[in-house]
Prior knowledge:
- The protein is of the alpha+beta class.
- It is 48% helix and 24% strand.
- The chain has helices at 2-19, 21-65, 75-84, 135-140, 173-181, and strands at 85-90, 95-97, 105-111, 113-118, 122-127, 132-133, 147-152, 166-172.
Amino acid sequence: TSAAQLLGSLAAPLLVAGLGLSPALVVGGGVMVAGSLLTAPGLHTVSVRTDEERRRLAPLVDRLRGIGLLGDAPRATLERLARSARVQPVAVGEVVFAEGDPSGDLYVVTSGEFEVRTEAQGVVNRLVADDWFGEIGLLRRIPRTATVVCCAAAAAVADGEPGPAAELLAIDGTVFVDAVTA
């Protein structure tokens, strides 16, 4: 990094002046090889952890890529958003947030149905899987412009058993704003 470059730019003239060019190159090369060998195990561990996290996040990253709001975002940005995301079960009738509330998270519907309501207009939109909401308040840094309410849980499974509760993916608002404005 910068510290290593600074150290090298200070040490190189001293080595050349003290040892001559050829011995200074051998010493410099030896330090590079030794440094690489000493840091290799740690770098390998970091690499393995990073690969494991990428595999774990891949389904969520693919889902986020399919959402219109985020479809053109670089993979690294989608991975950052996926790391900040959390699953939020929602009961029918539950208010996710109310008009005028402070803005906090971006939401993606993973199952169920949600109504978007305003005091002035009533129901203005109905949201289903892969729809998103909450971005207006985050991007404009204003309170929520509507109320979002869960109006239906996930459909029943094939054998007649009730499906899971409605579910949202909540993405940290600060991470979202940083990602889209970067």
